[in-house]
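protien #1 (seq + structre)
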Amino acid sequence: MTIMTRPEDAPLAFQAAWNRHDMEALRTLFHDDATFVNRFGRYVRGIDAIVEMHEAIHATVYSDSTLDNALIDVIPIGADAAVVHFWSRLAAGPAHPAGPHAVDTLILAVLTRQAGAWRIKALENVTLTNPRTGETVLRDGV
């Protein structure tokens, strides 16, 4: 079980669960009634729906993918709530129909603390794209 003791633990905890393709570790990062919006705008509510959405992609197109997350900022809302922004670079492998490639996203997560542990209440993932062409772009041009 992954326990986040600070909001700024979220990016690396999410990265670790993803990179191990460990859906039970992913489950422990979220509150039972959490919401998740993936990079394609799909909205799900509830930990079971979040895990189910990720199980499907981790068994197929992202089975050999990795994430590299980097904290941007933590904005406290109070003693037991915070907004966390972080960069996430997805490195898709040969299992993806488009082959190996990278995608950068910006993640906004709202975390709350209950019983001493921080968990994600809501997460939204936005793909970086060129607004004129719709093409995916990487934040550092690589």
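ok now protien #2
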Amino acid sequence: MSGPPEKMWLDNEAGPLLRPYSLTNGRTKPSATLSLQSLVRSTGRLAPDRVEPTHARMLELCRFATSVAEVSAHLRQPAVVTKVLLSDLIDWGAVTTRVPTDMPDREQLEALLHGLRQL
């Protein structure tokens, strides 16, 4: 790679390069049990300006009940990284979680897939 050192670590579309294990301090397992469908919501007990930027972004995303998958997609981070960081917020009382009760069954999902294929 050529050019100034600071340019080697930037990707115009992705922003600064930051390894996922850096965000989690090397942790690979969340302390809370979360699925991709789990809904998380901010409690308002912790202000975003009192936490790391990624945690603050999560609090903003979770003002309304949001799935773990959606948070992960918005942060552009692997699901396990998102789960570890959300676990921090749960442990701190900043976020609550629940499993959605209105999950579609297999038959509904197959009908949806069939309909999408017809498009």
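The chain is about 45% helix and 10% strand.
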